[in-house]
Design a protein that fits this description.
4% strand, mainly alpha, 24 helices
Length: 547
Amino acid sequence: MIDDEKSKNQKNDFINNKNKSVRFSDFVAPLSIIGIVGLVIRFYYFPYDIPFTYDALDYFSYAMSMSQTGQFPNNWVLVNNGWPSLVSFFFMNLNSENFIDYVHTQRILSIIISVLTIIPIYLIAKKFFDKTWSIIATALFVFNPKIIENSLLGVTESLYLFLITIGLFLLLSKNSLHAYISFIIIALVSITRYEGLLLLIPFSIIFFIKFKNEKKIIFKYILALLLFLLIIIPVGALRMESSGQDGFISHYTAGLIYVSDDLVEGTEEDEEWIIEGQNNIPIFLKNGIYGFIKALGLLLIPFSIFLIPASLIIIFTKKYQKKIDLKVSSIILLTGIMCIPAFYAFGRNIDDPRFIFVFLPFLCILSIPILKDIQEKINKKRIFSICFIGVIIIGGTMIMEYQKTDYENEREVYQIIKYVIENTDGVNAISPESRYFKTAEIEHKWPNISNLEVSDSGHVSREINRIFAEDFKTLNELLIESKKIGITHLIVDGKDSRPDFLNSIYQNDENYPFLERIYDSTEHGLEYHVKIYLINYEHFEEIQNYR
């Protein structure tokens, strides 16, 4: 009878954990071990000597420019500039002439913040479970393969998740002062990623629920809102001054215009799936649902994809109270609101699971009930917990091993692309290797990159002329167009994905007398075999006229 009552009380922990006090000594040792192992795994997969591409490169360039000028770069429409602003502080204090040292600094900062996120996750989980299960929730987060992979990229998500989890913990704290500080935190979240502005909705609702019995609640909320605005408004004003956009309202307005004009009327030219003159909302919704489910599945691999469904079954059975308190309501509200930007991205066919990373800390907590249920049947809590954490670590690293990048090949690719940038005026793009074009251009200018050309979309512009050989049926068509836009060289590597006429050059370049081979990567000791040719247009035209 006593055992039954004890079991019942344990199962009610998910909603109403009575042991809410958190002592430093209770969690510092196990969290430190989890954190150290998390760091070791990340540095094991650290892409040493490999520079940034895509978004990370934009953040890097922005941070470097800011560190050199001491202000937001002019004419740079980078709305999520909270992360590069933080990075710029570390760049200013880094005394190095080596380009890659700055790249490593940005990555290391992202890694450290990613691992530190286990602290607020633990503190939130502790409101539902005891120390052991809260530690397991942090392990599910820090050893998640997608989180490990993302932390190595040097992008916004590490800081974004860190701040969100801190903000929610502070809002749920018994200390009223912490609730006010949480509004400062979500302002910083919004600067890090503009969709964080939506958090004002659930945080405001939770604030009113929390203080519903207190006098002057409106006054208290206005004070919290003012703290939020005291950060948002100056940042928005500085952004307007430097780029002409505030990065908050401007982007939500752009989203509404996209839905009303481009989707409903079918006017968007950049989206291949949009049918001109037709309401594309059904396609948008289909894309959103499919993308959301796919991304969620990828994020939950390998463990939570099984744990969460089982935990939900347990939660919504008689084994657990069906009471919804402030803690549960807050997580439901937060995750529900943050579904909106994620669904918007997936609806636009942006295939990237990072848009739902915001859910993962809470999904890790949600994974615990089934583990508690299993452990109670085994009755070996400590052994079960240690073994399961070991399984989490092994499972996460196995996934990382399966999908890890060939870093040596990446280094060779970058070495070749640097040669292209330094010795040509224009080439055919070879995807995905040509993603390093912008990076190589920046390193070529290093360290004077404060005045980089930036496109209207807010990305660093390429200077080298490019042409896509895949757009042409024959070499003749390619070269005729290449001359018009200033393409001086051809690059070939013999991959099956390249057009047949490029692979013909790779295999039998003696048949193309108007092409002069100036580079062969194997002559430089590289395994990735690339040949680069100077185009003699006069000779090419002579042959064409003769024919």
